[in-house]
Amino acid sequence: MKNLLRSTLAAAILSLALVPVSRAADTEPGLVDMGQFIPAEKGQFVEVNLSPGMLKFAAKIVSCKEPETAALIGSLRRVRVNVVSLDDKNRAGTVGQIEAIRRKLTSQGWTQIVTVREKAGGDNVDIQVKQNADDSIDGVVVTVIDKKGEAVFVNIVGNITAEQLGVIAEKFNIDPLRQVHAKLVHTGKEV
Question: What is the CA angle 114-161-144, rounded to 5?
Fold first, then answer.
C-alpha cells in the first residue's frame, strides 16, 4: 500500500511539473526542437541562439536607423541558426536529422512553401511556416543541404507578417525569404 501511495504521489508531482512545460510549448508554437548537430572534424560549425531578451536588445539598437527591421526583430521570440560542414563522419546523421525534422513539421501541419531540389548533388532546400488564425506566421523553418557540403537549419519564432518577411528579405538580401514573400503575395495568402 505504501508503494502504491508513493507511486501515485510521484505521478502527481510529475504531472504538475510537466504542466509549465506544455504551456511553454503552447505559447511558442513556432519553436522546433531540432536536437544537437554533430560538427565535422574540419570545417565550419556555427550555432546562434537568440533569446527574447537578446532580440529586444537588438531591436532597440537598430530602431533609430532601421525602424522596419526593429519592428520585426521586436516581434520575434527566438532565433536559432546552425551551419554545419559535412564530412564522412557526420553527413548521414545530419542529413537524416534534417529529413526527420522536415517530416515532423509536415505531420504537425506546417505549410511547405518553398522546395528546391537541384540536379546532380545541388542544393536541397525546404522552407516551412507555421501559420496562425490571424494571418501571421508563428514560425519559419529553413533547412538546407547545399552543394558546398554544408547543412543549414534556421528556426525563427514570433509573430511575423508577410510584409515584415519581405522587408527583411530585401534589406538583408536573403533569397530564400524573397521566394517565400513572393509566393505568399502571388497566391494571395497574407500570412
Answer: 30
Q: Which residues contact 166 (CB under 8 A, 6 or more apart)?
A: 178, 181, 185
**Domain hosting residue 119, numbered range:** 31-187
Cell triple for residue 117?
Answer: 531540389
Residue-level pLDDT at 24: 44
- Count of domains for the chain: 2
37 and 79 belong to one structural domain: yes
Residue 101 burial (C-beta neighbours within 10 Å; 0-12, 13-18, 19+)? buried
Residues in the chain: 191
pLDDT digits (tens, 9 = 90+) for 130-142: 988 777 889 999 9
**DSSP code, position 41:** S
